[in-house]
Each structure stands twice: as structure tokens, then as C-alpha cells.
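Suppose you are handed a protein chain with no further information: no name, no annotation, nothing but its sequence. What can you learn? This example shows the usual starting point.
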Amino acid sequence: MSWLQIKITTKAESAEMLEDFLLDIGASSITLEDPEDQPIYEPLPGETPLWSKTRVVGLFTEDFDIKTIAENVKEYANNVEIAHHITTEVIKDQDWERAWMDDFKPIKCGNRLWICPSWHEPPEPNDVNMILDPGLAFGTGTHPTTYLCLQYLDSLPLTNTKVLDYGCGSGILAIAALLLGAEKATGVDIDPQALTATTDNLERNSLPKEKIELYLPDEFNGCQADVTIANILAGPLVELAPIITNNTKSGGYLGLSGILADQAQDVFDTYSQFFDLNPIQQKEDWVLITGKKK
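A reasonable first move is to predict its three-dimensional structure. Written in C-alpha cells, the prediction is:
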């Protein structure tokens, strides 16, 4: 059996209307996609953010007429004045789960750290292998900012250190640090679901729960970290500078990302008051700022 697929790229505020319309005219499923590789970081509780441009993908059974569907969508979009771009195609049936899994391969971050989906054998069994399956939860190593942070952690002397992951999301950075030799990690995040995801990923990597302490920001009473890592966004990083600085011990390492290249100088200038910073590292449009506390 083949499937008929229609893709409509629109503004975030129009996505829900298009989703409802496609379901009303018979779509079997709807998927929302990012057409421009725009990262979404941890939402506030109760929020479901979308990309500023969102691709709405509708899947129809083969007994529909794809040209009629496209004409109906165009007419609806024009009536409600939704800016849109529409493409259609016929998709042959396949093993969808297998096809999805095949898209995700192990990622090497640095000299010895790998991020491996659970269905893949680690390419280098004697290296440090983190098991982390892709999903909706807060980062899996594929985005440049996460990759830069993991690569940085892999370069540090982490044995017996205490690590603070501020804005921990899935816990990928804190767990990587533990696997690389850190003694203890602290994760802080505004979303309770992120703390749950971190606990799940800790167990998936056979690490004991006592290796990490997890807090919402209001519950966090502070620490003195040997390494502080924060992969958030430029604005929050500037606002959080006093907290991040105060919770990093003298001589402690710092890694900051989630920063676009054109935002880097503001973050750099803010933290240079308290840290001796290294030259900025860049991957695609994103940067990593590192250094040691004065």
C-alpha cells in the first residue's frame, strides 16, 4: 500500500489550524517538522513551542486524490490568509520503524566519547560509550551546540571532579561527564520533565542514582563545581552569569553554548570579568565559549 503525503510550510501560529484542517479532510496522521534546523530548548512548564517556520506533514491513504487535497489546502490557506508553501508526493509502504532507526548512527564527540543509539553496537567498545536514544527530550548530540559541549568535556581532566550542568535537559552533558570520570554531577533545569529524562538516561547508562543530584532552579542551593557546563541560550546565559560564576570554584573550568555566532561577544564580555576565556570555537552558526575561573 502506498501513502499520499502533503507538506505545508507555514508560520508557527498557523500550524494548529492546518493540522485541524488536514484531519478534518481525512488525514491519517499529522507530523510537525522543523524546516530550517532551528533548535528549541527547554520550554516553560505547560508550553509546547513550535519553530517560527513549521512544516505540517499530512499522510493520507492511497484512495484519496492528492491533487484534490492540495487544491483544498490552497483554498483553505487563501481563505484564512495563511502564508504557505505546499509540496506533495506518493510514498511507498516500508518498515517505518526501521527506516527511522536507520537515520540515527553513533556520533563520535572528541577523542574517546561516543553517543550511541541503543540499537547500534558501539563502533569502539573500548572507548566511552553513552547510550542515548533520539526522541523529543532535550538533546541527543546531533545539534552543533551539544556536540561542541561534549567535545569540550572529552578534552578535560574529569577524574574525581564535580560537574554542574545548568540547563541539563536530557542530562546528556552531566552523564557524559560521569562516564568520562567525574565523581559527581549536579543537574539544574526549569522543566520537571527534563529531570525525569535525566534520571531515565542515567539508568540507561548503568550509573547509580546517587551519582547525580537534580534540582529545579528554586530548589538549587548551590555547589562548588570543578566544571560548569551550560548549553542554554545567549540571553539566559548573560542573566545567569552571577549564578554560574558563584557555583564554579576558583580555577574551575567553564563551557557555555547555545550561542549563535553573532551573539557570542556579549556573552564573552560578560564572563570575561570572572573567567580567563579561550578563543571562541565555532561549528556551523553556533559557538562554544570556554575558560577557567580567575
